[in-house]
Amino acid sequence: MEKQYDISVILPVYNNVQYLEECLDSVLAEKKLSIEIVAIDDGSTDGSEQILDDYAGKYENIRVFHQENSGVSVARNLGLKKANGEYICYLDSDDRYCPGVLEKGLALCSEKKLDVLFFTYENFFENEIAAERWQNNRVNQPMRKREYPKEPICGREMLLLFKTQLEYRVNVFLQMARHDFLQKNQFSFEPEIIFEDIPYTFEVLLRAERVMALNEVLVKRRIRDNSLEHRPTTVHRCKSAFRSLILDYKLVRHFGYDFPECEPAVSQELAFRHEFVKNTYLELDEENQETFLRQCSPEERIFFEAAILPRIQKEQKDRATIDRLKDKHREKAEKYKAKIADQKETIRILKKEKKDLQQEKKRLQGEIKRIRKSRAFRLGRWILRPFSYIKRHMKGKR
Fold first, then answer.
1. For 364-393, what is each residue's pLDDT tens digit?
2. Tens of pLDDT, residues 67-83
3. How much helix, strand and coil, in percent to the nearest 5, is found in the chain?
4. Torsions phi, psi of 6, nearest 5?
5. What band does 176 get if pLDDT is binned at 50, 70 and 90?
6. CB within 8 Å of 10: residues ≥ 6 apart
7. Backbone phi, then psi, for 151, in 5-degree steps?
8. Cα(339)–Cα(210) distance, rounded to whole angstroms?
9. pTM surpassing 0.90?
10. Is 94:113 a contact under the CB 8 Å cutoff?
11. At residue 141, what are phi and psi to the nearest 5 degrees?
């Protein structure tokens, strides 16, 4: 009979030899907990597989399963099947746990009988290259900081709170979930896609009955210079985003579109995912857009043409309208610029003429002043003085 643990940490690993020991040690440091590591080697070829086997040989609470490279979803699904813990946590092999937070989380889960407990995380840069590429990414601050209820609420109410407070995070490494809750609802990750956290977390919140959120930082998340967000958009990335949206819609349909506790949040999430698919599609060149459409099943093609394509066409139409308005106003602006340039030239000429006149005036005033000081001027005034006197005298008699 296999040993039962309080927590199973599911750890997919693929070619992460540089950070793997640091990650494993951060879990093993939680000595006060009954905790196991279920490590899935997803076909590593860089020595990560050997590190896992070495650790498993030293620690009885580490179990390693090797598989051909099949992606993180398949690895996590295998981990879920093999886990023996009462609660399930996920960790990425280039990240690490903060000391003592798992213990605090487990105590709260046990006390409140939670289905899921949500934590938060902090980013840190791997190196200066990553820091330069992620200039706008928040670092050394929690990704979730607002206040949440001190008693359990249902997952739908938590979804609404997350959305309302702009702190909705789909990352599964932020979650501590009760194992039998996941088993009862047959949770799994969609294979062969990236963004696999999106439909999984959405479903967790729609199904869970007892949920809480802590502002405790559980995971230090490593930001690498080759992170997914900095890779060029590919057909696979676009297909994954689209597939995640379809899975969200299937889930909503399963519940009969009835979400009285969180209808605005569900609508907002679906709208956000629509926009995400649209943007990833538009980032593809024309050839890859055609490739994406060819890879869609007939059902997916119909959904895309009904739900996504109208948004794209509207945006393209809006852009064309904006471009026409820009051209129209650009012509007017050029005319006004020409008029303004002419006016500026006229003003420049007038200012120059004014300056020339002022200089001429100054010159003439200097000439007058020089004449007044001359001997000839003074002699002339002396000679003309009697005539001036007679002239004034004659005016007085009149």
1. 888 888 888 888 877 877 787 777 777 777
2. 999 999 999 999 999 99
3. 60, 15, 25
4. -70, -45
5. very high
6. 38, 40, 76, 79, 80, 83, 88, 89, 90, 91
7. -125, 155
8. 70
9. no
10. no
11. -145, 145
